[in-house]
Task: structure prediction
Amino acid sequence: MIDRNDLSMKDAYRIQMGLLTSDEIEQMRQRYQISQTDLAAVLGWEQDLITRFESHLVQDKAHDDLLRRFDLDPHGSKEKRDQCQDRVF
Result:
C-alpha cells in the first residue's frame, strides 16, 4: 500500500509538471510491443532506467522529451526496435 501511495503521489507530481505518468510510459511500451530493457537500449539509457520510471523514479524533462519523441516517430521507432530485438541482452 505504501508503494502504491508513493507512486500515486509521484504521478500527481508528474501531471502537475507536464510529464508522462508511469502508466503512460508503460502504455507507450505496450503500444510498440517493446520491453523495458529494449526501450532503454533504443534510447541509449542504462538497462533499468525505464523500470525505475515505471515504478518509482520521476523522470526529468529531458528524459520525458526523449520518451515523447520516441512515441511520435513510429517508423523510426520500429527500425530501432527491430535492430534492438536482433541483439541478445
